[in-house]
Structure formats: structure tokens, C-alpha cells
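Listing S7. Sequence submitted for prediction.
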Amino acid sequence: MWKITIISLVGLFFVVGCVQDMALIEKGNVNAARKILIAGQSSEFKQDVIIKVMETLGTKEYYFKIIGLNQLDKEETEQYGVILLVNTYMAGHIDGRVTRILQDDPTNPKIIVFYTIGDENNPPPDWAKPDIKVDAVTSASLSDRVTERADQLVAFIEKRF
């Protein structure tokens, strides 16, 4: 029994240790009135969704700043009309950095949460779902869902401006 527990813990630490934050990227018109801060974890699927969001909204009327979740505490957020938090729902939890932000202001109208889950065919039970009181989009990391998830995020973003 101890061997299974140790192997499980090592596997969990390996998976969590492989999660990387998004790299700093700035796109669009820095003088635009519509500014969006995207803070998150990186994966091919998440990046594809974010790229599709930026392509859909365009960069003439919007300014996008993408940072890792670790940089969020250092960022002045007042200037942004939208703060999009991108993370993974793993082992029954969203990222602790996202949880802290939501605990500080659980109904912040600027915040949108986008999180990925392992399998849409086996969603977590209701008791295990995160208690998010802001707009949220969730998805398994399936390439055929990129456009659909981006469109959902675009609708939430446009609603704020």
C-alpha cells in the first residue's frame, strides 16, 4: 500500500512540476480603451484558444498582455477591463494562485476563468467542481474544441466592454 501511495505522489509531483506559466507577450494597440490581461498556465491547447481569441477580437481596438500566473501579483490590474485567468483543474482543484485571486474578490466583474479538465466525458462530480462566482469556461484539451471555447471567451469579453 505504501508503494502505491509513494508512486502516486511522485507521479502527481511530476505532472504538477511540468506545468509551465505563459510567457510574456504583448499584442495590439497599447493605447486602446479595451485592455485585456491574460494570466495563466501554458499548454498547446490553451495557447491555441488564446490565439483564436486575439484573432477574433483583433488588435486594432484591443490590447492584450499575456503573463504567467506567477507574475499576476506584480501586475497593476486597474487599467484592464478584463482579467482572464487560464489554468488547469487537476486533482480536484484549480491552481492555488487562481483560488487566492478569487478569494480576494469572488465576484470581480473583470475576471473570467478558463480552465481545462482531463476528460469531458467524465466530468468531476458537482461536489468537486470549483466554486467560481465569475464567468467561467471549461474544456478538455481537445483541438476540435479550440474555436468553440474561444467563441465562448470572446462573448464574455465583449460583454464587459
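Caption to Listing S7: primary sequence and predicted C-alpha cells for the chain studied. Residues 81 and 160 are 7 Å apart (CA to CA). Strands lie at 20-21, 25-28, 34-42, 62-68, 82-88, 111-117, 135-140.
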